[in-house]
Amino acid sequence: MLNQLRTRIDANLYADEDAALQALIEQAALSPAARSAITTRATTLVRDIRASARPGLMEVFLAEYGLSTDEGIALMCLAEALLRVPDASTIDALIEDKIAPSNWGKHLGKSSSSLVNASTWALMLTGKVLEDQEPGIAGHLRGAVKRLGEPVIRNAVARAMREMGRQFVLGEDIHKAMKRAAGMEARGYTYSYDMLGEAARTEDDARRYHLAYSKAITSIAAACTHDDIRRNPGISVKLSALHPRYEVAQKDRVMAELVPRVRALAGLAKAAGMGFNIDAEEADRLALSLDVIEAVLSDPSLAEWDGFGVVVQAYGQRASGVIDWLYALSERLDRRIMVRLVKGAYWDSEIKHAQVIGAAGFPVFTRKAATDISYIANARKLLGMVDRIYPQFATHNAHTVAAILEMADNSDVFEFQRLHGMGWANACMTSCWSPNTPAAGFTPPSARIAICWPIWCAGCLRTGRTRLS
Predict the structure, then answer these.
(1) CB–CB of 320/27 below 8 Å?
(2) What is the pTM of this model?
(3) Percent of the chain whose predicted confidence (pLDDT) is above 70
């Protein structure tokens, strides 16, 4: 059975998208009445959130400078690139490249926040200072102002990036992250910690990441005070961070070297009574990931442990087959596992890679609407597998949340998850299990926050990942 499912998964790497989508529509099996109920629930949810939520400065800022604007794209590119810039002169050049050409004036006075409007004024003024010099005395004066102002501008931008990092990254290290998480944990939320960083490039990198994961699990273990794993914090692990040659061409080496490392980390997590999720990788690594997962989960030392989890990306055309395979594996091993269903993380790079190699199709859906259908269809599948699988639904989309609540029919055998810094109001409202119930003061244990925390620095955002909510 497992071999047949694996053969099907491998064969559908570049499946016909229209045929796959039609099968998922049938799998979702939403009747007209159910679709109407979902739309009504989602609409009410959004209205209640807008009426009750008080957006913070970051939300208001992003509302004005979203990724639909050239200025918002410039700011996001600047935030991401500054993390790897080594020296002051390069930072100055980068800031000048991103700030000077943009039309900040069109945003002036448009926000409801006086602080955002003040920031817009500062950006506009900065852009004027950094413009190319004009000939003559005026140009020389502007050049002097530019030279004197660059250190001030550099420090101001660095401060802004730190504030942005605090919005989306819980802490600089695991101890700071856990300290900041304590407030939400007191309200009933549970955290799943994700270490941000690049994939291992060398064996030294892999060993360093492995040690960092081990120390993090040991630290998190102190907060695992419940008998129920679902009520304890957990951790997500990237396989590509634990081996420098995590690729199909090096399968024998990966199985010999990576599997023992993952097994050791899983053993630590089991001893602590915490959740341990294997994070998703790119489509061309899916088969290798499943090989590693099967080898680790089959180890007898992990028997009678319900905390092993796998992340499945709904934008992949093989997501449904992967869920079937995971269920069959858990049956064969007589285990219960967790499955975190996400929309996807590498869409742009998956599309570009398929184009570069001249593939007959794409391993992911090319439209977001198709990904949403896949998510709903696979959510229904997971809700029908709760004898072996504990579903974890990671989404910030109100319609998707409403669809899951409709399909779950008041069942409590699953949890919602959100990324730190995203979907806060959405999480507050859905945590009450009804859009008509005030969210204040009530949060069940089944609301989990997926937290990203970096190895290197506060504000470190994972590069090359495009999350679809």
Answers:
(1) yes
(2) 0.78
(3) 65
